[in-house]
Amino acid sequence: MCQGPHNGSDTCQEDEAHDRTSIGLPGMQEDLLRAIAAQTSTPLVVVLMSGSALSVPFAAQSPRVSSVLWTSYGGEEMGSALADVLLGVVSPSGRLPFTIPTSLAQLPPYLDMKMDRKPGRTHRYLTEEPLYAFVKMVILSRCVRCPSR
User: Fold this and answer.
1) Residue ranges per domain, the chain?
2) Beta bridge partners of 137
3) CA–CA separation, 121 vs 127, rounded Å?
4) Which of 20, 37, 90, 100 could connect to 132 by a Cys-Cys bridge, CB 3.0–4.6 Å?
5) pLDDT above 90 coverage of the chain, percent
6) pTM for the full model?
7) Of the ranges 26-30, 69-73, 94-98, which one carries the lowest mean pLDDT score?
């Protein structure tokens, strides 16, 4: 699912002078994800391509979604690299560079910059379980067609 020229979020969603009002998927993308999940028995892989946290509790909890893959904005080989991961040519691994909260309710008010204000601003002070934790190691253990090393 993609919207706009920037892989899912455009300047209507956020830019230097305009912050997002939600950490969920922009526009009607979650509705589209739910509709696809309801219409298929095929396992889905949700690819999130963003420069910041996107909370996707439905994808994380749905039995129809087998994987959630987050990636930052890539360069000219991004499409090839993503295809290699999705087709099992390479086994991806990585660590999240930020915590993804379940919802905005899990964060203190935006203008309150006290890091330890409950429920906590960063992974270090968060007192509740996030949707995905900062530096959580993610490794796919099965590589279908990995090149020999």
Assistant:
1) 29-139
2) 95
3) 9
4) 100
5) 17
6) 0.69
7) 94-98
